[in-house]
Specification:
This protein is an alpha/beta fold and about 325 residues long. It is built from nine helices and 15 strands. The N and C termini lie close together (about 5 Å).
């Protein structure tokens, strides 16, 4: 069983919701929205990783150290564009930390329709996001199969198509990206609501802002905290708030009114560390990163290890 208090450190999901500033986000700009990865990364070193090791993260959140954690499960990572070096990056990351190697039977990369014709190469933020997500999904669920689904672009139609493929081929789906909320977003909610599938999505790395798909009712929205040697502290860059368009599911209605969201969905539902996370990229070596990108992967991997179906409803009902 996933223990919410263990995964959240000292702060429970309800405390995170009650303490955050909640405001309704208005539509930004016009035209076709474009998603952004939630990664926050700075180049670190060519040969030495800094920050938390996989073992330290596992101990901090009570995750199993078994090299078979997640065995028999598939965790899908949805991303935009293609990272052609992701398998090599994962091999280097795994060798550095002494993790089981993840070969072709462990990592599968497909396009948004499940084919092998790669989309265009990713611009830097998306390529780094793919590396971070895949490396840490393997670090925290080393026995699981990783399905990397690469959308043809960062626009909603392509990302939703990738999401539909992911939900049809994995029980756990991680989304470390989002785009500003807009009217009509609920028409895509079904892509994040397959029965028996656990969906996770990052809230923005900007205070008091919301984004889709974290606001979708079938998604566990993930925010950030700061893990330190002295405990878990609020992360000043963490976002979240009241959805502008999505009604709160029945399991969240009372919480919605308590925190001032007037019956609209509240985000985040849960949180985890958003600082001090290293990952490897072949072009430039080690990076130091965090943000809700990592927190989302951590929750998805922990759920994969448990084998449980984890939803926003089960989180708010206190059954995980």
């Amino acid at each position: 069983m996933i223990r919410s208090r263990s995964l959240l450190g000292a702060a429970s999901a309800l405390v995170a919701l009650a303490s955050m500033a909640v405001t309704v986000t208005s539509l930004k700009g016009s035209g076709t929205p474009r998603a952004e990865p939630m990664i926050r990364a700075l180049p670190d070193s060519l040969d030495q990783a800094s920050g938390f090791s996989p073992d330290q993260i596992k101990r901090a959140y009570g995750l199993t150290a078994s090299p078979y954690a997640g065995a028999g499960q598939t965790i899908a990572i949805v991303i935009a564009y293609d990272n052609p070096n992701v398998a090599f990056d994962l091999a280097m990351f795994s060798a550095y930390w002494g993790l089981p190697q993840c070969g072709s039977t462990c990592l599968t990369k497909v396009n948004q329709s499940g084919g092998t014709n790669n989309p265009p190469s990713a611009p830097s933020p998306w390529a780094l996001e793919a590396a971070l997500d895949v490396e840490w999904a393997h670090a925290l669920a080393p026995g699981a199969h990783i399905l990397l689904v690469e959308a043809a672009s960062d626009t909603p139609p392509d990302l939703v198509a990738a999401e539909e493929y992911a939900g049809g081929h994995a029980a756990y789906v991680s989304n470390s990206w989002g785009y500003p909320e807009l009217a009509g977003e609920s028409s895509n909610d079904a892509a994040f609501a397959d029965p028996g599938v656990s969906y996770f999505a990052a809230v923005p790395d900007t205070p008091s802002e919301t984004q889709y798909p974290a606001t979708a009712p079938g998604v566990v929205s993930v925010g950030g905290t700061e893990l330190t040697p002295w405990g878990v502290h609020p992360w000043p860059s963490g976002g979240g708030g009241c959805s502008a368009y999505e009604a709160a599911p029945s399991t969240q209605t009372s919480i919605s009114w308590q925190v001032g969201c007037a019956g609209f969905a509240t985000t985040p539902a849960v949180s985890a560390d958003a600082t001090g996370i290293p990952f490897w990229d072949v072009a430039s070596g080690w990076w130091g990163t965090g943000g809700t990108s990592f927190a989302t992967v951590l929750w998805a991997a922990a759920a994969t290890d448990s084998g449980q179906v984890v939803t926003s409803s089960s989180i708010f009902a206190g059954v995980v």
